[in-house]
Amino acid sequence: MNGYVIAALILAIFFCIGCIRIGGGASLGDEGLTAWVRLGPKKIVLYPMKPKPEKPPKKKPKPQKPPKPRKEKPPKPKTSLGSKLREGKLLADIFVPIALEAAKGFFYKLQIDVLELYIHVGAYDPADGAVLYGRANALAAAVWLPLNQAFRIREGRVRVDWDPLAEKLVCAGQLALSLRIGEILWIGLRFGLKALAGFLRYRRLKRKAV
Q1: Cβ atoms 34, 45 nearer than 8 A
Q2: What does the alpha-carbon distance between residue 175 and residue 34 come to, in Å, rounded to a whole number?
């Protein structure tokens, strides 16, 4: 009974770890660009970077001994351009479909936690402001629809404002992406095995060609 309880606890721990989301994001606002990564509830800011403390001056390096002369290796036999091209085509035929399928599975599992886009239009001339306002709305719609079709957006909003007293167009926004650890491990295991099978196939075909 104790063994079943321990196994159940281990599975529960792995399940909880697999549900933790990791990801990153960026925001653009009045304070400039900010980028961060996230592991569960912990958020680590990558940009702007904190100033590093000044290190004490390094001691003068000790005089090094002259390096020993290396033995020259015999030159490797050159392979022809045709054989290189055939080998490159074989690698592409095997690994490119695997890489594309892995990228498709990765983006399918990727979730957009927050997507915010604010466009503030301003112009002294009301006619120019109206034209800019229409173009900004068209741009927001052109970006928003494909993003909603391609990704799972948990919380998203887009807004275009027009201020006749403003002097220029200002854009601000926030983007946060995440993926569960369990999904990352599953994608890595699944396509890692496919890549290993592709590598074994590549070696087998290369031996036959020789």
Answers
A1: yes
A2: 10
Identify the three-state secondary structure at position 156: strand
Read off the tokens for 188: 């890595």
- Number of residues assigned to the chain: 210
Question: Which among 32, 39, 1 is positioned nearest to 17, based on CA atoms?
Answer: 39
Query: Tokens 């095995």 label which residue?
Result: 193
Residues sharing a CB contact under 8 Å with residue 107, sequence separation 6 or more, in sequence order: 150, 151
Highest mean pLDDT among 25-34, 189-198, 200-209: 189-198
Rounded to two decimals, the pTM is: 0.63
Alpha helix (H) residue ranges in the chain: 2-19, 81-109, 126-150, 181-209
Three-point CA angle 94, 182, 188, nearest 5° = 15
Q: Residue 180: which of 44, 38, 45, 46 has the closest Cα?
A: 38
pLDDT digits (tens, 9 = 90+) for 142-158: 888 888 877 788 888 88
What is the chain's Cα-based Rg?
Answer: 28
What residues form DSSP beta bridges with 160? 119
| Cα–Cα dist 187/194, whole Å | 11
